[in-house]
What does this fold into?
Amino acid sequence: MTLSTIGSDQRSVLRTLAGRVTGNFIDGRWTPSSSPDTITVLDPSTGREIGTVPASSAADIDAAVAAARTAQPGWAALTPAARSKFLLDIATLTEELLEEISIIEAVDAGKPITAVRDEELPGVIDAMRFFAGAARTLPAPSSGDYLEGVSSIMRREPVGVAAGITPWNYPLLQAVAKVFPALATGNTYVLKPAETTPYSTAWLAEIVARVLPDGVFNVVFGTGAVAGDALARHPKVDVVSFTGSIETGRKVGIAAADGVKKAIMELGGNSPVIVFGDADLESALDAIAIGGLYNTGQECMSASRVIVHASLLDAFVDGLKARCSREKLGDVLDPTTTIGPLNSAQQRDRVLAKIEARTSGARVVAGGENCEGDGFFFPPTIVVGVADDEELVQEEIFGPVFTVQTFETEEQAIALANGTRYGLASSVFTSNVGTATRVQNALNFGTVWVNNHLVFAADLPVSGFGASGIGTENAEAGLLEYTRLKHVMVDNR
Ligand code: ADP
It folds into this structure.
């Protein structure tokens, strides 16, 4: 594929921002790193360099945590209404600058501009507003006289300094999902974005600095092994929120446990999609195609693992192939592009390796090979006849890849769906409400969609069951992760 030169003017927005990133964002300003090492950030559509960010040291993490600690008491002392107003102002600024941040996120992460500007970022702005408002109505057990002679008062307090380690698939969305509930409830924050996608977080740091007091939100760039690890185990950090792979999550969890601090984990999935014989096939196919190809399948809830009733196999595969062939891969700033590149050469290699490791019975009926040319493009891919125990089924793929398995009975479908270590998301397509109700009940997943897939709102909880995570993001439950409940008992005699 030959890439057009579309968007060279628009790309200058990102180049300008990259030029301003001269260090980490600590205590309200760009601060030089104590480490001479840097990370080179590439444009995944072209493979060309965008800029460099510091490969920060543990000393840089120390400085950021110290700034967050200093700012925390003052931030926590504000009323919920005052904090909410600050956060709403950030949402308004983000909305005003939607075009700019859309270009930055689209180019840096490799996302089609239309998807970022029209779907993802409006959702991010809504999440900012959701958390800003929700923190004004925090629930707690009611205060009262539970024992004779004493009165009990319940207080929901911030935990203190929160730290976040974000992945590269939804850099700004993930940052907001972690930072906003924490700030709304009176915590201050240190965030380390992923190596390949630092710039929307850098942009957020500058926007936040126009609104919030210094030190409330700090950003440190760097590798997971050095900066991420130092942040997760830092003794002055009170809660860590991580989104990424199970293997890295385990390391972050161990580092957090070392300091006896809370860790919230969102660790990926390989979502089963059960299509019963009585499903409305056309609308199921539409939802599954979007659910599996959105963000080039780099989505931990992607509709990747289709389990279809044997009677529908041929019609389903034909319909999915037709939908895949309609997609347009290309430069992310071309408004007609529907699928962008994978985020990095490494990610493309990982996806290809999983497909190449398939068993002899598995047939690739669409895609399956790297696209030629610049950038890290990979086509929509369908693999039919996969065995239940193979890597493509058992492990997260994180690319535009569907596997298709068949079933005869409801019990078989449920067993296949529940048959991996993941438990993040799933979906069921059927026209029978009884089937839908029984099956959702039997599925071990934090999210079950019925006749739909990959539909979100900040109001709704995301919880990983099994190896997919610990704790909840979004919704009231996500907000409460950043609070601690204090019981005050007063002798009233
Ligand atoms: P990937 O391998 O695709 O980069 P990861 O789950 O390893 O996915 O990365 C998600 C985030 O975790 C990134 O910000 C990365 O820098 C960070 N990370 C990687 N290793 C560690 C670690 N040992 N400790 C803390 N954070 C880490």
